[in-house]
Write the structure tokens for this entry.
Amino acid sequence: MSRYQTESGFVHGAEERIGVLLTNLGTPDAPTPAALRRYLAEFLWDPRIVELPRPLWWLILHGIVLRTRPRRSARAYEAVWSERGSPLLETTLEQGARVQQLLSERLPGPVKVVTAMRYGQPSIRDGVDELRGAGCRRVLVLPLYPQYSSTTTASTFDAVSACFTRLRWIPELRFITGYHADAAYIRALANSVSEHWERRGSRPEKLLFSFHGIPHKGWLEGDPYPCQCHATARLVAQYLGLDDGSWQVAFQSRFGAAKWVTPYTDKTLKSWARAGVKSVDVLCPGFSSDCLETLEEIGQENRDNFIEAGGQVFEYIPALNSRTDHIDALASLVERHVQGWLEAEADWDPEKRRAWARNCQQLAKAQGAER
């Protein structure tokens, strides 16, 4: 038996496509303890997420975490689950479909966009197999994490790379590591804020940019994520013309007892309310799609924190989701990063390509006969 995967159904000279693998974090299959246990077991076992020695972490994960956390997390997921399922999965699939439509209109050659999740389904391996089956010999990976982090972007790279270790023919690969300062992304964020304020007819006293946190140790060891979060917030604030005292960056979603990057979102909101701040809007620029961390943690839990501490008006500004300007920004990112691939395809004369294909097929047939 061959060690490497056979290229079944391969036809020499067949038209090749550019493939785009659009990835997001992932979601459980259902808001149930059993589904959460499966999802968390995959997610939390990733060494990019928890860097403890494997034997020690295995004992903690299976002896404590997976015995207690799934039931609590299932209740939180149930609060945001819709009739169509996971909001993150639903939105990410829609984003992929709309990016496909734009690229098909804009690019001169064939392109296929596939959506995949780092954890859960549809998996990255399934996505890579789908692109290969569609004849994609050049693949661009776009993780929907604007700010690079070892815990998200690098973990996606690990998963994609692992898919190629058993392939006989590895596609040409390009990988977008982030877009935290991309002009179209910043403009879409600023537009979402200004439109929210226009609909309401007023601005809050404070605008909080809340990003998912990472352990402080990771930052000290070279993860650029917190710096990129601050850069994104600063660029949006500048675009909106905000005074320095009217906005701030904070970090949410701590896990475990170790110190994470500060300031913390929940503590910031409580301190503002106790200091007399009555109205707050929260924007989460690191989340390309609304999910548990935005809809439940920010929209419900932290809203309650602010109101109970003395605040009066708390509004969450939705993630960019499938906004037209967001989809345009993502499609433009892809267009820039596939430059050179389409030009190389265009250099092929159609008749010469057909002749080359016939020659390859004849050679392959002859080689098979010799065996």
User: Anything to note?
Assistant: The mean pLDDT is 92. The longest strand covers residues 17-26. The first helix runs from residue 33 to 45.
